[in-house]
Design brief:
about 190 residues, mainly alpha, 2 domains, about 80% helix, flat
């Protein structure tokens, strides 16, 4: 059987640098085309924010010491910021705060729940990320109480799902959490 040749680190770094340079050139070309053809519609800013998002994802994924839960957290934050930016560039109708971010939080929580079920022995590695996602899920509640969101139902559901997910993961991993605490604190 013939296996593909492994790319060495220097060559892969070179490929990444060339790709980033190509992305920057593409972003500049898109801005120029946007200014020439339709300056009243900021579509180049939207596509360029997508390019930045893709590079955040790629560069984060290349790091081999990344835990999956950390990747879920970074994706949650990056996609949330991207949707708020897109909403802002389109005139800020508020759909990013009332629809997109709650859906992103629900998906992040479901992903964390699946990670916990599949590898509950490794829950300790995911616990801090789970807590951060629970804290992030409180943002919709803050936005609702400050009257910044017109449709609060999805935000309330997202917060409820997050709290329920935390309870379920603690129940599924209670014994492992207890053993880890005893081991770490010598109780």
């Amino acid at each position: 059987m013939i296996y593909p040749q492994k790319i060495n680190a220097n060559r892969s770094d070179f490929i990444i640098k060339i790709s980033i340079l190509g992305s920057i050139l593409l972003a500049i070309i898109l801005l120029i085309i946007n200014k020439i053809t339709t300056p009243q519609i900021p579509w180049a800013a939207l596509t360029n924010s997508g390019i930045v998002y893709i590079w955040i994802t790629v560069l984060y994924a290349i790091n081999k010491n990344i835990n999956i839960a950390g990747h879920v957290l970074i994706q949650t934050i990056a996609i949330s910021l991207l949707t708020v930016y897109i909403d802002y560039r389109l005139g800020f109708d508020g759909w990013s705060l009332s629809i997109a971010i709650p859906i992103i939080i629900i998906i992040a929580n479901l992903t964390m729940l699946i990670l916990t079920i599949v590898s509950h022995k490794k829950y300790i590695r995911y616990a801090i990320y789970q807590l951060i996602i629970v804290l992030l899920s409180m943002i919709p509640v803050i936005l609702i109480t400050e009257k910044l969101v017109e449709e609060p139902i999805l935000g309330i559901v997202a917060t409820g799902v997050s709290i329920l997910n935390l309870i379920i993961t603690l129940v599924l991993s209670a014994r492992d959490v207890k053993e880890a605490i005893i081991r770490k604190f010598h109780l």
